[in-house]
């Protein structure tokens, strides 16, 4: 990073300053890994590629950077120490794989920046140069339900035996490792319930970690998280933590996003981030996405102006979105303001 005052909020403030008030998050990782030939039929899901095909992860990161993403998210959503150990890796090897997820993203950023001379810019194709395109690397932390690989991150139902302390114990070392991995921030993603948000806040507040974080919840109806907890209560928990620099929604159908932005804005003045899925529905039994409710790239992007106007300042895509989607989002947002003039990578 080329700046920093010790204040976690300065990272997001600087990003939005140099991008003219809105920034682009990348899109679906697993979708693109599969499109590039990866086999993700595994409890580790996209994290499997950290073991057998890291080059594919790097390629997908580069594809999103080419599309105009300002933030790329590491392939650690379903990467956990517990999950790797269950596959025979030692604790040390498991932690190394977590760090590797961030290293790959940083490598992709370096490759991208070196490939663009600072004095050139192809405005017509909306490809910004290293001088103009700020890029951050976010270390992804998926929910406890993602580790279970049973679809419970889409229900938030972990059972009565799983307490806040259970969740803190599960996530603690993972958070520590990723916080020290070289990432610019931590992305707590697809948070399905209030108890996990509370566990994350306590972990951040109890630690001496300097890295900022964002909290991103998933919703089933535009009012509550998938567990049924009101989104306003969950966003308020995130807002209470000084280390949380943005709050928002991911892996949620586009039709719910506008209302969710308005609800979140009621309880926080922090930047709002949204990166919805394509609108398709995940079937936890078949472990497949049901395509009948999806929206086209054009329909997805038609929401962008409405979301931005409602208060979202960081916009991208989640499951089943592609570099083409992100490219269209980048183009749409760039029409609202001039090209940024400073790199913060």
TrEMBL record:
Could you give a single Gene Ontology term from the biological process aspect? S-methylmethionine cycle
Q: Which reaction does it catalyse?
A: S-methyl-L-methionine + L-homocysteine = 2 L-methionine + H(+)
Enzyme Commission numbers on file: 2.1.1.10
What cofactor does this one take?
Zn(2+)
User: What sections of the protein cross the membrane?
Assistant: none
**Organism's domain of life?**
Eukaryota
Question: Where does the Hcy-binding domain start and stop, copy by copy?
Answer: 11-333
Which keywords accompany this UniProt record?
Answer: Amino-acid biosynthesis, Metal-binding, Methionine biosynthesis, Methyltransferase, Transferase, Zinc
Query: Which Pfam families would you find in this protein's record?
Result: S-methyl_trans
MF terms from GO for this chain are: S-adenosylmethionine-homocysteine S-methyltransferase activity; zinc ion binding
Q: Which NCBIfam families does this UniProt record tie to the protein?
A: PRK09485.1 (NF007020)
What role is this protein assigned? Catalyzes methyl transfer from S-methylmethionine (SMM) to adenosyl-L-homocysteine (AdoMet). SMM degradation (by HMT-1, HMT-2, HMT-3 and HMT-4) and biosynthesis (by MMT1) constitute the SMM cycle in plants, which is probably required to achieve short term control of AdoMet level.
PANTHER family, per this entry? HOMOCYSTEINE S-METHYLTRANSFERASE-LIKE ISOFORM 1, ZGC:172121
How is this protein named in the record? homocysteine S-methyltransferase
């Amino acid at each position: 990073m080329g700046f920093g005052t010790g204040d976690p909020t300065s990272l997001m403030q600087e990003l939005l300053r140099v991008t003219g008030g809105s920034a682009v998050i990348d899109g679906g990782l697993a979708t693109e890994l599969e499109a590039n030939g990866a086999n993700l039929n595994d409890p580790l899901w996209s994290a499997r590629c950290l073991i057998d095909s890291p080059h594919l992860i790097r390629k997908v990161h580069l594809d999103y950077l080419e599309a105009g993403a300002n933030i790329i998210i590491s392939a650690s959503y379903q990467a956990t120490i517990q999950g790797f150990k269950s596959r025979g890796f030692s604790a040390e090897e498991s932690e190394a794989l977590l760090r590797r997820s961030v290293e790959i993203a940083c490598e992709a950023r370096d490759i991208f920046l070196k490939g663009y001379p600072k004095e050139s810019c192809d405005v017509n194709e909306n490809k910004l140069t290293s001088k103009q395109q700020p890029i951050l690397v976010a270390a992804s932390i998926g929910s406890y339900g993602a580790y279970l690989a049973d679809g419970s991150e889409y229900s938030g139902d972990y059972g009565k035996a799983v307490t806040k302390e259970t969740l803190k114990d599960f996530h603690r070392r993972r958070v520590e490792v990723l916080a020290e991995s070289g990432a610019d921030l931590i992305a707590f993603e697809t948070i399905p319930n209030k108890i996990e948000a509370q566990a994350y806040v306590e972990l951040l507040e109890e630690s001496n970690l300097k890295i900022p974080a964002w909290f991103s919840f998933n919703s089933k109806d535009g009012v509550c998280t998938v567990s049924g907890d009101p989104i306003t209560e969950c966003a308020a928990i995130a807002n209470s933590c000084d280390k949380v620099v943005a709050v928002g929604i991911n892996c949620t159908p586009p039709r719910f996003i506008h209302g969710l932005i308005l609800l979140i804005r009621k309880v926080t003045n922090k930047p709002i981030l949204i990166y919805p899925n394509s609108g398709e529905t995940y079937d936890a039994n078949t472990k497949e996405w049901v395509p009948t409710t999806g929206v086209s790239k054009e329909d997805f992007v038609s929401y962008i102006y409405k979301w931005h106007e409602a208060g979202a300042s960081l916009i991208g895509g989640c499951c089943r979105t592609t570099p083409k989607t992100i490219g269209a989002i980048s183009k749409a947002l760039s029409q609202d303001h001039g090209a940024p003039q400073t790199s913060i990578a």
